[in-house]
């Protein structure tokens, strides 16, 4: 029985999601053979590249097992052991070579075809350039190798190619010998990377590229040459990324004492890329979306995305590269920690409060639903079928929340002592999450025994809050609980920091100091000294623990906290809770309208900064509202949210006009104040257009036409796209013509239409999927249309199932081309339990259609079958 049939049988049996062929953490064994040194020689051509490799291998420990190598789609032309040709007979994607002594030299020549590589893993072609992507298991598509992160090697890489097609030849480390004038118009460059690294950090780029160059002097006075490579025309659009890179290098020195360790740091931007970016040692490769930015083409949030991802990849140089993962179950060791570091960096660069709110919003929009559904897994999973499916919001964002809790528990100084010890102990090693926690524990003397449960347990804990008065004292009981997740029935209480304070119900001020309560038991009792004023609780301030709070509060109390809580996250949360409470019913939204008005006034009066106000004015999304109930009422949520939007729009029309006047015209500056003003002005414009006056439509049209920034142009276009007006059609057409050929901007054009609230959205998306600019092979473009549409709760979940069918069609079409892209599209269908029986059946039908399709990829089969359970 083949693997697919086994999966089908398992589904019939309704057993727990332990798929056949799963790899288990419990089965980990150290590598039998190490590879201290590797030399690679690439003779490049898009159709057929020849890779010769020379591996110095050394027996690891006392055993007589063979050397095991991984390889995928390799045409092997020869193999040699200690200089003698050997016959190699791969079994599937593995090759075993018996070796007598304790060390040997193994050599291969293989042929690979970058031009035919549509999976974008290994060596592939993107717009005439050749680039690699090796994490997690792409190196095996380049040559035979023990493709696992605990085998660390020093690399020497010679790249030879046509000098006209590939004038620039890059690899990791520092550049060595250059050979010019080789036969056939070819040239070659040799790179050496002195730092031992796992093969997933190997990289090569060849192409006609130009660089934005700069330099950085490290804390010990070493000069580093910086270069960001792209097409000549895009070089000026790399300035923001370069500034972010230099700021990141300085920040990692100042905050973590970490210095860069090579003479050069190169970044390359490419258009076809499965993920956001990749931290290859000394040669980061980026999705161009996270490098190219100027005011004309990038929104404020794009600018922030560029800076955040540049920082993230740079920070991996220590958290990921110098200290790497022992196995892929430890992925969050590098990703959770590095996301936490990039969040800290971004908070330091701009408005920390707003940044925290954005992070929380993202976590709750993506990770909480993942943790509540069939794909729930802990930040250190214990089995997987296809590791590419585990680059999830849980590993990254919940992983970062777990690190943040550690930071809160041990304090900034303790945390720094912990990271210092971690680097001291483990530099040059491939380690585990346990090693990380142990270093934190040893450096701070804290007991993190129970804290380790965060690494094992999936699911989002709930904290119920009960409050009472005893002799004037405020007694709060915090009760933590957690529902079972697939394959994990029993949940134990976790150790977490819970920041709280009291807010006076009369004064509106904080009473006494904030407390950081360390919750450990199922029930934690907190006592505040007697106060003579009625009080309200300010809970989980700064979102100190990634939990769901269950606390009783009236709308009046929530409105009061939304106006007075002195913690920005908690204040924002009060507004969210108030909005959720109103949007869950058909009640008059008056309470919400007046809370919005009060916050808006605090902004105009200068009591709150514009960025915060803009954030607070945004209603929870339809999907977030849906996540709060056991069953998503697709039409009801849409109807009630639209009604509330209209009430806020019409009830405060004069205020919105005033806000638009006050906050627009902030130019192109990227200061927190200017960004905040743009955000708030665009929120105002969206409400005004929603109210539907001719003046508002005209204002949107003028803003669209005269915008100095993409933020403002996009703000106007998004406001118009939901309307049925000539302005909408004119602006959409203009946008497409104006930005023809600019991939990142044309992606926005697809997305804004896919997210529209108009009833013809599905038909539009179907038409856009046939548009000449649509491309299923480009991950960004696929995401911009199909990925975005799946987030449009009202129209993706159209009752007749047409949205699901569209997704199923696209998923199966792209699976033949790029399984990683395809597998991601299965995720939205996994939410079927949360919808009514009719929709649930239609969603399942698409998942079943996928699992029943012959020769579907392992990536997709794993996701679809887990989603069905
Ligand atoms: N390791 C990359 C990062 O988070 C992400 C990535 C994973 C890129 C897999 C490509 C492939 O920085
Ligand atoms: Zn990362």
Reported for the largest beta sheet, the result is: 8 strands, mixed
Radius of gyration, in Å, reads: 28 Å
The number of helical elements comes to: 27
What is the chains' assembly state? single chain
Describe the structure.
There is one protein chain. The protein has 27 helices and 30 strands. It is α+β, with helices and mostly antiparallel strands and 869 residues long. Among the domains are: 129 residues, Neutral Protease Domain 2 (Neutral Protease, domain 2, Orthogonal Bundle); 91 residues, Immunoglobulin-like (Sandwich), CATH 2.60.40; 169 residues, Peptidase M1, alanyl aminopeptidase, C-terminal domain (Zincin-like fold, Alpha Horseshoe). It has an eight-stranded mixed sheet with strand order 6-5-8-3-2-11-14-13, with no helix packed on it. Strands 16-17-18-20-19 form a five-stranded mixed sheet, covered by helices on one side. The protein has a four-stranded antiparallel sheet with strand order 9-10-15-12, with no helix packed on it. α24 packs parallel to α26. The structure holds phenylalanine and zinc ion. Zinc ion binds next to α4. Its cofactor is Zn(2+). It comes from Sandarakinorhabdus glacialis. It holds the Pfam family DUF3458. GO terms for molecular function: alanyl aminopeptidase activity; metallopeptidase activity; zinc ion binding.
């Amino acid at each position: 029985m083949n693997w697919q049939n086994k999966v089908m049988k398992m589904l019939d049996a309704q057993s727990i999601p332990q798929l056949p062929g799963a790899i288990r953490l419990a089965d980990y064994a150290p590598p039998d053979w190490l590879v201290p040194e590797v030399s690679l020689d690439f003779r490049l051509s898009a159709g057929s590249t020849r890779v010769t490799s020379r591996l110095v291998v050394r027996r690891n420990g006392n055993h007589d097992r063979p050397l095991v190598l991984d390889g995928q789609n390799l045409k092997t032309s020869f193999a040699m052991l200690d200089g003698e040709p050997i016959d190699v007979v791969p079994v599937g994607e593995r090759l075993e070579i018996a070796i007598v002594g304790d060390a040997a030299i193994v050599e291969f020549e293989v042929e690979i075809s970058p031009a035919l590589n549509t999976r974008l893993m290994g060596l592939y072609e993107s717009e005439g350039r050749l680039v690699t992507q090796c994490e997690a298991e792409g190196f095996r598509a380049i040559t035979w190798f023990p493709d696992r992160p605990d085998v660390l090697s020093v690399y020497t890489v010679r790249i030879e190619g046509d000098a006209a097609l590939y004038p620039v030849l890059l690899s990791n480390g520092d550049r060595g010998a250059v050979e010019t004038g080789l036969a056939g118009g070819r040239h070659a460059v040799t790179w050496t990377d002195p730092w031992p690294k796992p093969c997933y950090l190997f990289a090569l780029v060849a192409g006609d590229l130009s660089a934005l160059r700069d330099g950085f002097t490290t804390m010990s006075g070493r000069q580093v040459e910086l270069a960001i490579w792209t097409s000549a025309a895009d070089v000026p659009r790399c300035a923001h990324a370069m500034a972010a890179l230099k700021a990141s290098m300085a920040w990692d020195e100042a905050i973590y004492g970490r210095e860069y360790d090579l003479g050069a740091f190169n970044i390359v931007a490419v258009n076809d890329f499965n993920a956001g970016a990749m931290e290859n040692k000394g040669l980061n490769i980026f999705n161009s979306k996270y490098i190219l930015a100027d005011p004309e083409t990038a929104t404020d949030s794009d600018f922030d995305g560029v800076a955040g991802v540049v920082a993230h990849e740079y920070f991996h140089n220590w958290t990921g590269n110098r200290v790497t993962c022992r196995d892929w179950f430890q992925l969050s060791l590098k990703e959770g920690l590095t996301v936490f570091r990039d969040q800290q960096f971004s908070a330091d660069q701009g408005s920390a409060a707003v940044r925290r709110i954005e992070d929380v919003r993202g976590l709750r929009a993506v990770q909480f639903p993942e943790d509540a559904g069939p794909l729930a897994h802990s930040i250190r999973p214990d089995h997987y079928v296809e590791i590419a499916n585990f680059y999830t919001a849980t590993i990254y964002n919940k992983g970062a929340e777990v690190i943040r809790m550690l930071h809160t528990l041990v304090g900034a100084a303790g945390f720094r002592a912990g990271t210092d010890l971690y680097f001291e102990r483990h530099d040059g090693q491939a380690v585990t999450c346990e090693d990380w926690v142990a270093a934190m524990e040893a450096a701070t003397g804290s007991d993190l025994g129970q804290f380790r449960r965060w690494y094992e347990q999936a699911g989002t804990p709930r904290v119920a809050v009960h409050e009472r008065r005893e002799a004037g004292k405020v007694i709060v009981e915090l009760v933590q609980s957690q529902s079972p997740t697939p394959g994990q029935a029993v949940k134990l209480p976790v150790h977490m920091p819970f920041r709280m304070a009291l807010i006076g119900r009369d004064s509106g001020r904080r009473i006494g100091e904030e407390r950081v309560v360390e919750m450990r038991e199922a029930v934690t009792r907190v006592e505040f000294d007697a106060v003579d004023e009625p009080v309200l609780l300010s809970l989980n301030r700064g979102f100190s623990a990634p939990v769901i709070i269950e606390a009783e509060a009236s709308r009046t109390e929530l409105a009061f906290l939304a106006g007075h809580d002195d913690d920005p996250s908690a204040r924002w949360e009060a507004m969210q809770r108030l909005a959720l409470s109103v949007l869950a019913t058909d009640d008059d939204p008056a309470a919400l309208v007046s809370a919005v008005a009060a916050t808006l006034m605090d902004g105009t009066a200068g009591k709150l900064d514009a960025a915060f106000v803009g954030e607070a004015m945004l209603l929870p999304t339809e999907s977030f509202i849906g996540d709060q109930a056991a069953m998503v009422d697709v039409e009801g949520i849409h109807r009630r949210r639209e009604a509330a939007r209209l009430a806020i729009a019409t009830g405060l029309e004069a205020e919105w006009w005033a806000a638009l006047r006050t906050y627009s015209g902030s130019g192109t500056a990227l200061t927190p104040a200017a960004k905040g003003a743009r955000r708030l002005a665009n929120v105002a414009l969206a409400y005004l257009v929603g109210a539907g006056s001719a003046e508002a439509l005209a204002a949107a049209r003028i803003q669209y036409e005269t915008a100095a920034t993409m933020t403002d142009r996009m703000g106007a276009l998004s406001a118009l796209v939901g309307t049925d007006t000539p302005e909408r059609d004119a602006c959409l057409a203009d946008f497409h013509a104006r930005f023809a050929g600019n991939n990142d901007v044309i992606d926005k054009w697809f997305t804004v239409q896919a997210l529209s609230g108009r009833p013809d959205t599905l038909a539009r998306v179907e038409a856009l999927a046939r548009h000449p600019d649509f491309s299923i092979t480009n991950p960004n473009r696929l995401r911009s249309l199909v990925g975005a549409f799946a987030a449009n709760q009202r129209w993706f979940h159209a009752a007749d199932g047409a949205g699901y069918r569209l997704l199923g069609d696209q998923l199966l079409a792209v699976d033949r081309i790029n399984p990683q892209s395809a597998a991601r599209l299965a995720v939205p269908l996994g939410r079927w339990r949360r919808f009514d029986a009719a929709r649930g059946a239609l969603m399942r039908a698409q998942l079943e259609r996928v699992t029943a399709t012959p020769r579907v990829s392992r990536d997709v089969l794993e996701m679809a079958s887990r989603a069905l359970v």
